[in-house]
Write a structure and sequence with these properties.
578 residues; alpha+beta; Phosphatase 2c, domain 1; Phosphorylase Kinase, domain 1; Transferase(Phosphotransferase), domain 1; 4 domains; five-stranded antiparallel β-sheet
Length: 578
């Protein structure tokens, strides 16, 4: 069955107008699939400043760099992350060019330009803006300005740019999203156009348009006729068709692939020979198999019979391999390369000869701190590889960690992993923010909030705590707390209560990583790892300072208890004397 893709009609026009040269630059990129669905359609417009002889270089570099480099970013990244990284890199380059030129102290003569870009992905337009170029949306006959001019007016006739690309090494770029519908228009204009055409003219011209290139020229000619003395650039994009939710990569695979039968030893299956059953779960089956083409041992994961009528589960099931293929890290499960046609829904990954961390913990009930630290550091490396691609694992637990015979630790199972880039794509399947095992999940999940990298850090902290103590930091209380008030009452149980050999600073490190409030945890995993190896002076001070300073509430409670005992003793003494 054919599915509808995102289709647009575009129109562009640019002219120097009454200027000696054209310092504007513009461009549109409409990629083919799969990038059309994964990254969307991008258009960009830059306007050089008239006081600079090299700003046309800045404009061209900004637009071409954005349209080329945006599509080179990971498809796991959100549009916002992808675009902002590219724009920031362009800004840094433009600023450095000015710093290396004769105009390092004259920014208005350097490599500077205004910049506005739009990315249309699925059913949403993402707008990025710095300067005084503008973006508009025409929807249902109403024209809406989507950007704010970054211009400071000194008087009614004199102004200067407050923000632009290349002015400073640091960049503050505006970002917003707007939904788009079939028939909507996005329009990008330079100030040489929008300052000289009326809203009513824009609306009527666009609504009566047939050829958008001609329409763009009509709008620019109108501005020129109205007295514009600047360069003239118009970009128009009309949404002709929005993509079907069914056009997503995962949904297409679900629709085209068959569900596998129950596999048995020695069975031939899609180019593999089944060796044995490894694990039977409620949601999936795991088999050891031989790739008949390469002779390599592999692991095959198939959905259970009970889950075959759940399209949401099947989509997440296929996502596991999609995710693994986009990560190249020694501490993350590696997928198998399949060069032949696939006929069934299953996931093929490397075979790890070893044991789960859950089994390792059973075998090592009182592990050495160094051994725990080594395992946690390896898990953290895999976790950081996911985070760099804007992925949250969301189900970090001992059963999802494998340790091979060489001691290499690998994260497995991505069934609950959330991918920023995928979450932006419309799908007929409800994209739930799945929780993993409740005892390892961060408290914010139980408030109905979306997780962050700090949520994965919490799970990593729980694992470290459990390895060192055999217990959970808050017992089984975290899943029961569905309000912030309840979470404030969660009491961290000191590691030292379970193991007197644990250094005080290490206990405080885990206390911070396991704070119920995510903002009180470490901001970066690297910070947690550093404190895991190096005594943090702040934590040493925490243990030596007066009780009233480090825990005022406990101090006053303790003081009240002492005073109460004194009163009881005095009352008893007086009663005895009487």
């Amino acid at each position: 069955m054919m599915t509808r893709q995102l289709l647009v009609t575009t129109g562009q026009f640019s002219d120097k107008g009454r200027k000696d040269s054209n310092q504007d630059f513009h461009g549109i990129c409409i990629p083919h699939e799969p990038q059309l669905s994964a990254k969307g359609i991008a258009l960009a417009l830059a306007d050089g400043i008239s006081s600079s002889d090299v700003s046309h270089v800045a404009s061209e570099s900004a637009v071409t760099g954005f349209l080329e480099d945006y599509y080179s970013t990971s498809e796991t990244w959100s549009v916002k992350t992808s675009a902002e990284k590219v724009i920031a890199a362009t800004n840094s380059w433009l600023f450095s060019q000015t710093q290396q030129s004769n105009h390092r102290y004259e920014k208005d003569r350097g490599y500077v330009c205004t910049f506005t870009a739009a990315v249309i992905k699925s059913t949403t337009a993402h707008i990025f803006h710095v300067g005084d170029t503008r973006a508009y949306r025409l929807s249902h006959g109403e024209l809406e300005l989507l950007t704010e001019d970054h211009r400071v007016w000194v008087s009614s006739e004199k102004s200067y740019l407050a923000r632009a690309l290349g002015i400073d090494g640091r960049l503050n770029i505006d970002y917003r999203t707007v939904p788009v519908e079939t028939g909507d228009y996005l329009i990008l204009l330079t100030d040489g156009v929008y300052e000289f055409v009326e809203t009513e003219f824009l609306i009527s011209t666009l609504l009566s348009a047939t050829d958008l290139d001609i329409t763009a020229k009509i709008i620019a000619d109108k501005a020129l006729a109205q007295g514009s003395d600047d360069n003239l650039t118009v970009q128009i994009i009309r949404i002709d068709q929005l993509p079907d939710p069914e056009s997503s990569e995962m949904f297409r695979q679900i629709s085209s692939l068959s569900l596998p039968p129950k596999l048995e030893p020695r069975m031939l299956f899609d180019g593999y020979t089944i060796v044995r059953e490894v694990r039977i779960g409620s949601r999936s089956y795991l088999y050891l198999a031989i790739d008949d083409e390469t002779g390599e041992q592999v692991m095959l994961k198939t959905p259970t019979i009970g889950m075959r009528d759940d399209p949401a589960y099947l989509e997440r099931f296929l996502m596991e391999e999609w995710i693994a293929r986009r990560i190249n890290n020694a501490h993350v499960l590696k997928p198998c390369s399949i060069n032949r046609k696939r006929n069934y829904i299953y996931v093929a990954t490397e075979y790890i000869e070893g044991q789960t961390l859950a089994q390792w913990m059973i075998d090592h009930p009182q592990p050495d701190i160094e051994a725990v630290r080594a395992i946690i550091e390896q898990i953290a490396k895999g976790l950081r590889a996911l985070h760099r691609l804007e992925m949250l694992h969301q189900d970090l637990k001992p059963d999802n960690i494998m340790i091979d015979q060489n001691g290499t630790v690998k994260i497995i199972d991505f069934g609950a992993t959330r991918v920023a880039g995928i979450m932006e794509v419309a799908t007929p399947i409800e994209q739930l923010n799945l929780l993993g095992a409740a005892q390892y999940a961060a408290p914010e999940y139980f408030l109905g909030e979306l997780g962050t990298t700090r949520s994965d850090l919490f799970s990593l902290g729980v694992i470290a705590y459990q390895m060192l103590s055999g217990n959970l930091p808050y017992g089984v209380e975290v899943p029961k707390t569905s309000t912030k008030k309840a979470q404030k009452k969660l009491a961290y149980k000191s590691l030292i209560e379970h193991n007197k050999k644990i250094p005080l600073w290490l206990d405080e490190t885990l206390r911070k990583a396991l704070a119920p409030d995510p903002l009180k945890r470490y901001g970066e995993i690297s910070e947690f790892l550093f404190d895991l190896e190096n005594p943090n002076p702040l934590f040493l001070e925490t243990r030596t300072q007066a009780l009233i300073e480090r825990d005022p509430l406990l101090f006053w409670k303790s003081l009240s208890a002492v005073l109460f005992l004194i009163v009881v003793v005095l009352a008893g003494t007086l009663a005895h004397q009487s």
